Amino acid sequence: MTPAGNRRRRARRILGGLAVALLLAALSLPTAVGVMLASFSGTRPQDLEDRATPGDYGLSYRTVLLRSDDGVRIASWLLRASRPTGCSVVLAHGLFRSRREVLGRAAYLAARGCHALTLDLRRHGDSGGTRTSLGFLEGLDVMAGARFLRQEFPENRLYLLGVSMGGAAAGRAGAAMVADVRGVVLDSTFKNVPEVVDRYAALLVRLPPFPAGDLTLLGLELTAGFDPREMDVERFSAQLGEAGVPVLVIAGDEDRRAPLEAQTAVFRANGHPGSRLVVVEGATHGRPCLREPGVCEAALAEFLDLPPEAAGTPAKLLYDPGA
Question: What is the rounded end-to-end Cα distance, in angstroms, of the chain?
Answer without folding.
Answer: 72
